[in-house]
């Protein structure tokens, strides 16, 4: 018999928000946040670029925010987070994954759920070009997986300016998450991801490295096909299974040496029980896992309040640092 997961009961939403699907969709459809960014472009060593969108309030501390799959600095959760962190005096710099800032990237490869290279470059850039007392990395969904993986990869060698890590609704087991989102109940989410990815991957056919045809791409219906067709070969993995196994952040949590907060919901429609790193968090004193009963995927809305529940938790985490 499986032991029950720990549940943090502070998040008790109203009836409608007890639905994982409703909590997931509501912010996307109804939340409006007005944030004016200014953009900075940095070059990568491989001849590409990353666009950083900044919401600066003259703070002494900074959040570097990593968005989710096919998201950007304009994603509702990124805008809401920028507003919440700015409200307590923190600057926010959102790193747009390659090809996600509104302009195609320059290379055949782009980004994936374990692509930590650009996060490391962004940290080095911010630490060397700004005068912050401390930096905290905050990642959502795919970005949360990247933040946790990066923290475990570098371990004690994490940049000294980075004082903490936060991951919200991170798919810590990519194989399990990919299987779950392919189920019938998640067909609308999967279709949305597929439409966005296919549009970009049709553009990638101009590169000589491309081995898939337009017809093959059009026939693809899920992440297994997309990751076998593009993600794995473009980024040096044997196949989708190798990519998922190699990049799942769960296996890296044991080596995280910095103060870390993980927030996830049991009723996240994208994830199975394996996606929540309960044992891994319990085994590492640096990691706190808040696993709620409700919340959906990057949801956690509070009806009638501008700042959502997870944003309030992260505000507290940041205030403990600065």
Automatic annotation (TrEMBL):
Protein name, UniProt field: AB hydrolase-1 domain-containing protein
Active-site annotation: 141 (charge relay system), 268 (charge relay system), 297 (charge relay system)
Source superkingdom: Bacteria
Organism of derivation: Sediminitomix flava
InterPro entries found in the cross-reference section: AB_hydrolase_1 (IPR000073), AB_hydrolase_4_sf (IPR050960), AB_hydrolase_fold (IPR029058), ABHD4 (IPR012020)
PANTHER family given in the database record: ABHYDROLASE DOMAIN-CONTAINING PROTEIN, ESTERASE YHET-RELATED
Molecular function via GO: monoacylglycerol lipase activity; short-chain carboxylesterase activity
Stated family: Belongs to the AB hydrolase superfamily. AB hydrolase 4 family.
Domain AB hydrolase-1 residues, every copy: 63-300
Pfam families: Abhydrolase_1
């Amino acid at each position: 018999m499986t032991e029950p997961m720990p549940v943090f009961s502070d998040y008790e939403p109203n009836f409608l928000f007890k639905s994982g699907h409703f909590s997931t969709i509501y912010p996307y459809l109804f939340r409006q946040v007005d944030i004016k960014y200014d953009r900075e472009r940095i070059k990568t060593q491989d001849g590409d670029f990353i666009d950083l969108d900044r919401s600066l309030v003259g703070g002494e501390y900074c959040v570097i925010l990593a968005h989710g799959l096919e998201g950007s600095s304009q994603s509702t959760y990124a805008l809401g987070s920028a507003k919440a962190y700015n409200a307590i005096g923190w600057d926010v710099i959102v790193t747009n994954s390659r090809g996600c800032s509104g302009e195609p990237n320059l290379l055949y490869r782009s980004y994936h759920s374990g692509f930590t290279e650009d996060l490391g470059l962004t940290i080095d850039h911010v630490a060397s070009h700004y005068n912050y007392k401390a930096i905290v990395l905050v990642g959502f969904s795919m970005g949360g997986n990247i933040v946790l993986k990066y923290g475990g990869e570098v371990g004690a060698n994490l940049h000294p300016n980075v004082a903490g890590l936060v991951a919200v609704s991170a798919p810590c087991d990519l194989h399990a998450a990919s299987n779950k989102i392919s189920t019938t109940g998640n067909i609308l989410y999967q279709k949305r991801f597929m439409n966005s990815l296919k549009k970009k991957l049709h553009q990638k056919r101009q590169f000589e490295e491309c081995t898939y045809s337009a017809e093959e791409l059009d026939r693809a219906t899920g992440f297994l096909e997309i990751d076998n067709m593009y993600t794995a070969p473009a980024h040096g993995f044997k196949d989708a299974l190798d990519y998922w196994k190699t990049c799942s952040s769960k296996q890296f949590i044991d080596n995280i040496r910095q103060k870390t907060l993980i927030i996830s919901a049991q009723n996240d429609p994208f994830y199975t029980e394996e996606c929540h790193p309960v044992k891994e968090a319990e085994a590492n004193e640096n990691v706190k896992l808040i696993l709620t009963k409700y919340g959906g995927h990057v949801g956690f809305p509070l009806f009638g309040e501008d700042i959502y529940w997870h944003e309030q938790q992260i505000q507290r985490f940041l205030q403990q640092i600065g």
